[in-house]
Write a structure and sequence with these properties.
Blueprint (H helix, E strand, L loop, with lengths): L2 H31 L5 H36 L3 H38 L6 H15 L2 H16 L4 H21 L10 H25 L5 H29 L3 H21 L3 H11 L1
Length: about 290
């Protein structure tokens, strides 16, 4: 199939996927507007903050590696394709997991530092931070989904990613309705952010499982090991961040200092555990 033919055939499906996401956003905002005052702005602001690390990590790495992945796929180099994909997924996990923990643990002081002024008061900060903590749960799923979707495009298969995206929107809406008003959530609109995180994570897992069927050379064990290393380093980083918040006080210097200390703790632990992030950092420094 030529590139032009693939693009022409992909356009209707991409439009379908984009339309489904748009419908999902409309439903979310309608449900949020009936949940409580300020819910829509809190969700929109929190989602915009969550998308920042997703863009920096997943979109940047996926864009940089897509030509290599596409070239391996086009030449039928299955082992090289699998190796490049595994490396990309591992690096994305190693960067997105601590970013997610940072959004959850440090969300409130960061939002206060960035936005709490004028009409944006402490109550607005709290609402946005709680929404951000629920979106942060799904950051890893959002990031992995980015590179796995591009892998299917490299394999000239755009049908499955779009169908799963539509299915994810349906799951998102169903979970939003089921979780809205859950008594264990401090603010009921948090259910809408949590539903998005769960649906996106399930979509990423499903798409990765289908990719492993398409490319059996993909080995699950190295990725599982890297996931465990990233989780361990993230747990240590989170502990450092919580201790920093408890002792550093409030204010811009305290918040930024805690953020820097937590980041250094994560990279030190990742290096100690010999994470794949170590090789990635050295390659970037050599350039």
């Amino acid at each position: 199939m030529s590139d032009l033919s693939f693009i022409l055939r992909a356009m209707p499906l991409r439009m379908l996927g984009s339309g489904a996401v748009y419908v999902n956003n409309i439903v979310r905002d309608r449900l949020a507007s009936g949940a409580m005052l300020g819910a829509v702005s809190a969700l929109n602001g929190a989602f915009a903050i969550m998308i920042l690390p997703q863009a920096v990590i997943a979109q940047a790495i996926s864009t940089a590696l897509f030509p290599t992945i596409s070239a391996h796929a086009a030449r039928g180099e299955r082992a090289e394709f699998a190796r490049a994909m595994t490396q990309a997924i591992n690096i994305i996990m190693a960067l997105s997991m601590p970013a997610a923990a940072g959004l959850i643990v440090l969300g409130q002081p960061l939002i206060a530092l960035l936005f709490q002024r004028g009409q944006f008061d402490a109550q607005d900060t709290r609402q946005a931070a709680l929404a951000l903590s629920m979106y942060g749960v799904g950051l890893l799923g959002h990031c992995v989904l980015e590179i796995v979707t591009r892998a299917f495009y490299a394999l000239k298969d755009n049908r499955l990613p779009v169908l799963l995206a539509v299915g994810s929107v349906c799951v998102n809406i169903a979970l939003s309705l089921a979780l809205l008003g859950a008594p264990w959530l401090p603010l009921n609109f948090m259910a809408l952010a949590l539903a998005n995180s769960i649906a996106t994570t399930l979509e990423a897992i499903a798409l990765y499982a289908f990719l492993m069927r398409r490319a059996p050379e993909l080995a699950l064990r190295p990725t599982a090991i890297e996931l465990a290393k990233s989780a361990a380093a993230t747990a240590g980083m989170s502990a450092v961040a919580l201790i920093g918040l408890a002792n550093a006080g409030s204010g811009a210097i305290a918040t930024l200092g805690t953020l820097l200390l937590a980041a250094l703790a994560y990279f030190a632990l990742a290096m100690l555990l010999k994470s794949e992030l170590q090789g990635f950092v050295w390659r970037m420094l050599r350039r």
